[in-house]
From TrEMBL:
<dbReference type="GO" id="GO:0051707">
    <property type="term" value="P:response to other organism"/>
</dbReference>
<dbReference type="InterPro" id="IPR001480">
    <property type="entry name" value="Bulb-type_lectin_dom"/>
</dbReference>
<keyword id="KW-0732">Signal</keyword>
<dbReference type="GO" id="GO:0016301">
    <property type="term" value="F:kinase activity"/>
</dbReference>
<feature type="signal peptide">
    <location>
        <begin position="1"/>
        <end position="22"/>
    </location>
</feature>
<keyword id="KW-0430">Lectin</keyword>
<keyword id="KW-0808">Transferase</keyword>
<dbReference type="InterPro" id="IPR036426">
    <property type="entry name" value="Bulb-type_lectin_dom_sf"/>
</dbReference>
<dbReference type="GO" id="GO:0030246">
    <property type="term" value="F:carbohydrate binding"/>
</dbReference>
<keyword id="KW-0418">Kinase</keyword>
<dbReference type="Pfam" id="PF01453">
    <property type="entry name" value="B_lectin"/>
</dbReference>
<feature type="domain" description="Bulb-type lectin">
    <location>
        <begin position="39"/>
        <end position="158"/>
    </location>
</feature>
<dbReference type="InterPro" id="IPR035446">
    <property type="entry name" value="SLSG/EP1"/>
</dbReference>
<protein>
    <submittedName>
        <fullName>G-type lectin S-receptor-like serine/threonine-protein kinase</fullName>
    </submittedName>
</protein>
<keyword id="KW-0675">Receptor</keyword>
């Protein structure tokens, strides 16, 4: 009888040979070149696009760009029949654009590679010689590379950007968050994130990109959501699902979009009157969390916004609570930006209303007051009990701090690396102090 080590080595050798010799059949390989005419239909971000053959209704892979000469490989959702907006729900090369004549290659070794015209590799699935024999786009919007047993070796669902599709998960040991897009023209990571943590899902905003910071590390991300999607037991994953509601004669009366943790229970995101499998949960450029549902049978207006986290109509929190509601700075009331705080008092708001530019520090720093306002930092982040004088001194010594909030009745202090939307309230003891 062979020794155990020889036995194990033999089967390991057989497994290794089987995996490394598996190849993609020639008729399944492809090379798509970024060239030719642009498509005629309206897309998100006013993007131009060139469709690729990889298609699974209502999804299609495409080259798209929002800035001339800078292209992304993206997954488009929507059909030409409905004549509705195409939405971009996934990007392969986020923040790493390619040029004209770039190539997307699926080769016989099972690797999917994005290359520039000069051959420079910009992105790949990293699946060379791992047993991949094919690629397909599933009806739920998941691009998968699979082996001869049909097992997924790689899937786009494991690499979300700012959007979750139904049946897609965020996991403790895998993709843990969605990150907003920087702007309609800029496809790099933005400052907002929707993160799976030990207590469930939370929304965070990072200090403004480009901000001068003290020391090597920037200020930590700041919470700007309530406990709507939090749990008491730490989840390993949370999945975006579509579940049928009450049924009559086995016909559901409605469908529920849910965030479902593996620890049990669920968070209802929205109720929809029809099958909502073709729904997405999107962390918008603004930082708002929104669900859109695509109803394929209709010829026009196929998209419906079925959930909005920050909204005065049916949101979890009012519109003014969205940090970006009034841009970089503004006083918000009933979802309207009504004033711009200045050293001389409140004036009419417009998009040019901005906080002081960092970095201003030292004993000579001065502040102006905005009385009767609140903001997401004191609402969702724990303040420190101290005197007003010490609170001002603390902010004055921090390059990151553009102002601070002080609640007189509780002597609580919050330094603010960002200001954004300030909600008008009747409590005059809640005051914002902004650096001059």
């Amino acid at each position: 009888m062979a020794a155990p080590t020889t036995f194990h080595f033999f089967f390991f050798f057989i497994f290794l040979v089987a995996t490394t010799t598996a190849k993609v059949p020639a008729n399944r390989t492809f090379k798509y070149v970024n060239e030719g005419e642009f498509g005629p239909y309206i897309t998100e971000y006013d993007a131009s696009y060139r469709a690729m053959p990889l298609f699974g209704s209502p999804f299609q892979l495409a080259w798209y760009n929002t800035t001339p000469g800078k292209f992304y490989v993206g997954l488009r959702m929507g059909t030409t029949r409905s004549e509705s907006l195409f939405r971009w729900v996934w990007d392969a090369n986020r923040g790493k654009p390619v040029g004209e004549k770039a190539m997307l290659i699926f080769s016989e070794d099972g690797n999917l590679i994005l290359k520039e015209k000069n051959g420079k590799v910009v992105w790949s699935t990293g699946t060379a010689n791992k047993g991949v024999v094919g690629i397909k786009l599933l009806p739920v919007g998941n691009i998968v590379l699979y082996d001869k047993k049909g097992v997924f070796v790689w899937q786009s669902f494991d690499h979300p950007t700012d959007t979750l599709m139904v049946r897609q998960s965020l996991t403790k040991n895998g993709p843990t968050k969605l990150v907003s897009r920087a702007s309609p023209k800029d496809n790099s990571d933005g400052i907002y994130s929707f993160v799976l943590g030990s207590n469930g899902m939370n929304l965070f905003v990072s200090p403004v990109q480009g901000m001068v910071t003290v020391g090597a590390l920037p200020p930590p991300p700041l919470l700007y959501s309530d406990d709507r999607f939090t749990v008491t037991q730490t989840p390993s994953n949370i999945t975006f699902t579509n579940e049928p509601g009450f049924s009559f004669n086995d016909v559901p009366e409605f469908y529920e979009l849910q965030l479902t943790p593996d620890t049990g229970g669920n968070f209802i995101v929205a109720q929809v009157k029809y099958n909502a499998t073709l729904s997405i949960l999107r962390l918008e450029i603004s930082g708002n969390l929104v669900a859109y549902t695509y109803y394929d049978p209709v010829a026009t207006d196929a998209w419906e916004r079925t959930f909005t986290y920050f909204s005065d109509d049916d949101g979890v929190l009012p519109g003014c609570a969205l940090p970006s509601k009034c841009g970089d700075l503004g006083v918000c009331q009933e979802s309207m930006c009504v004033a711009c705080p200045t050293e001389k008092g409140l004036v009419g708001w417009n998009a040019t209303c901005v906080p002081p530019a960092p970095c201003t520090i030292g004993s000579g720093v001065e502040y102006y007051k905005v009385v009767g306002v609140e903001q997401f930092i004191p609402k969702f982040n724990v303040g420190v009990r101290m005197s007003l004088k010490k609170c001002a001194k603390k902010c004055s010594g921090e390059c990151d701090c553009v102002g601070f909030f002080y609640w007189t009745e509780s002597s609580r202090c919050w330094s603010a690396p960002v200001l954004g939307s300030l909600t008008s309230v009747s409590n005059s003891s809640h005051v914002a102090y902004i650096k001059k």
